[in-house]
Amino acid sequence: MLIQLFFVLTAIIIGARIGGIGLGVLGGIGLSILTFGFGLEPTSPPIDVMLMIVAVIAAAACMQAAGGLDLMVKMAEKLLRKNPKQITFLSPMVTYLFTFIAGTGHVAYSVLPVITEVATETKIRPERPLAIAVIASQQAITASPISAATVALLSMLTAAGFNITLMNIFMITVPCTLVGVLAGAVYSLRVGKELADDPEFRRRVAAGEFSNQHYETAGVKNRRSALISVIIFILATVGIVLFGSLENLHPVFLTNGVETQLGMAYIIEILMLSAAALILVVTRTDGMKAAQGSVFSAGMQAVVAIFGIAWMGDTFIAGNMAEIKGSIEGIVTSMPWLFGIALFLMSILLFSQAATIRALLPLGIGLGISPFILIALFPAVNGYFFIPNYPTVVAAINFDRTGTTHIGKYILNHSFMVPGLIATGTSVVLGLILVHLFF
After folding, report:
1. Measured between alpha carbons, how far is residue 240 from residues 49, 144, 199, 334, 372 in Å?
2. Does residue 214 register a pLDDT over 90?
3. How far is CA 79 from CA 82, 123, 186, 233, in A?
4. Residue 393, C-beta contacts closer than 8 angstroms, at least 6 positions apart
5. How many CA atoms, within 13 angstroms, populate the side-chain half-sphere of residue 328?
6. How many contiguous H segments (helices) and E segments (strands) does the chain have?
7. Up-side HSE of residue 389: CA atoms within 13 Å toward CB?
8. Residue 421, pLDDT score
9. 217 backbone dihedrals φ, ψ, rounded to 5°
10. Does this model's pTM top 0.70?
11. What is the DSSP string of 270-291?
12. Torsion of CA 339, 343, 346, 348, to 10 degrees
């Protein structure tokens, strides 16, 4: 088992270094070694999860192509410029809301330059709002009803026979992640020296490296089409929440004399594909434009990652479940929060909340951990800020022309570390408290 684990971790590490679809396809190499080298029987690939993510990404990409994301960024820019003194609190709320609606943290890219400029103009150290804004865009993944991670969590818990609804997840993850983000924002208020006293900023100004060039967000060519796309997408999201919370709304079919209820996987796929189609038809948006956008590209990378890495992880855990349970079941059962540490560490390697859930949740279910505790530990998958090479982290560093947002001398002492640990730790601890009190 340890030799197999070595090959699994090697595939993950090499795939993460390659980037892009490398993580997913390296999972294929690991799976081939487990199957042909060690004789493990492959589990079923996570088809339902992948198809749900494809449907959501298709709708989000169509909204982006219709100008919906640009419209949201324009509205956010107005809010931030109108309340510049509150930017350290408003910025994470904006990126949290963007991710919550769109289901992907990559929508934060467009607003990061705005955050930087408003903070600089107000003489506020840009590191403060930027770092927590990036963390907020990650935390919201575990609260969004249409994120790949939430979809994976819900589908796997229901497939395991637990009577869990989307509302059960919301009641824990939404308040916990919001409080976690606000706790990180409170800490960020006093991070570093004031901008005027920061040595790196003063050096850049003296050397003529700092530019006062004004940043303008992308214009919205057709405001009506953009607004329609956002409304359609939000209505589809609301529909998913309603169906996920009220099982009596699910259609019931009679097959060979047996009644079967339509599952959430099909509902999500139907609603999101319909939303994508409506956006393209009503706004007359070119479908090729949707396929060429950043949302579609990032989403497809996530699908490939889940396909390879999650399938490899499933196969390894299923093939060694008896050994794993025998060695750690007692400890994890008495201290289930330890499973949260495993989720956090795996997310650092995988750079994907969805892939982390898909790879490790079967182990948590197999160990007999309560589904509500698993939901409380869900925000622990937001650990990919730990190593500062995730795209949104790198983008925030590059957008900060003052140099205050940085990677430290020892790599891990970077701008995002403490806000990320505070937000993630607070979310998990509060979740465990809520589960203890109400579930």
Report:
1. 15, 11, 50, 35, 21
2. no
3. 5, 18, 20, 22
4. 134, 385, 414, 416
5. 16
6. 21, 2
7. 11
8. 96
9. -70, 160
10. yes
11. HHHHHHHHHHHHHHT--HHHHH
12. -130
